[in-house]
Amino acid sequence: MRLLLAQNRESPVAITAALSGAGGYGKTLMATAICHDRRIRSAFKDGIRAFLRNERKADLPTLNNQLLDAHRPDAGWAEAPNDDRYFWDHLADHLIEAGRGAELVPTVKDWRYLAKKTLLRKSLSVENDLIQAMKYAPDDDPLRALRRTFANTGHIFNHCETRDDLHSTIFSRLQHLDELQAIVRELARHLASPRIVPKFDLPDLPHPALIRTLEGHSDYVRGCAFSPDGELVVSTSADRTLKVWGARTGQTLATLFADGPMLCCVIHGEMIVAGGARGVYFLRLVR
Questions:
Q1: pLDDT (tens digit per residue) in 60-69
Q2: What CA–CA distance (Å, rounded) separates 168 from 190?
Q3: Which of 224, 238, 259, 286 is 20 to 30 A from 47 in CA distance terms?
Q4: What whole-number distance in Å separates Cα of residue 28 and Cα of residue 57?
Q5: At residue 132, does pLDDT exceed 60?
Q6: Which residues pair with 272 in a beta bridge?
């Protein structure tokens, strides 16, 4: 399989098709085996995971436990290899499917895991893990505080380009929160020097009512509207763009570039009407 992948590195789909065309128990054994090879697994992305889930539904807890036990670093999941993108994306799913969802709680409260995953996969992926963990510890105050912080401050974390910068930034954004003092103290022991840390609480800490910051416009935002179901946000800006955002994730879903500043907008269903310096734009959002 490694040789086949080396010869067809740009066509993992073709290899998946060949595997799916194989027959009997050997096909499942082969798929299970290659799930343990990082190089092959990274080429197939989600294909092998979806294949195994369909082929061995009854054995999923056992298979997931075998996969986790084979890959768990001795020092914990925070020490997983940087290049193992599959595990950084799907660890929470495998822990839950293995019946080990409770293990996710201490994992996402480990500052090393929080920082490393933010650097590798951005803050929204960390927030999603925190949401999953809260299902197993809904009354965990530190967990709730971390989820709130990564939702309303994640856009700042995402600007950090180095590990040391991110560690210092996380420290400065958590140190005022009573629920997170244990994490803050442990993180403080590993901060690099020289470093910049707050002497007093930062003046730009988010207001308690702030849920999320949407970041993407490069000039003043002139208009903003929510869809009636609260799932979408439309914004217009002097940067000559109109953007559609996912309200729950803060991710940009679509952008319209105009020949002049965009000033106002409304949205109803799939229809968007926007006013700009060059006139009125009647738009339709196609999903």
A1: 888 889 889 9
A2: 10
A3: 286
A4: 12
A5: yes
A6: 267, 283
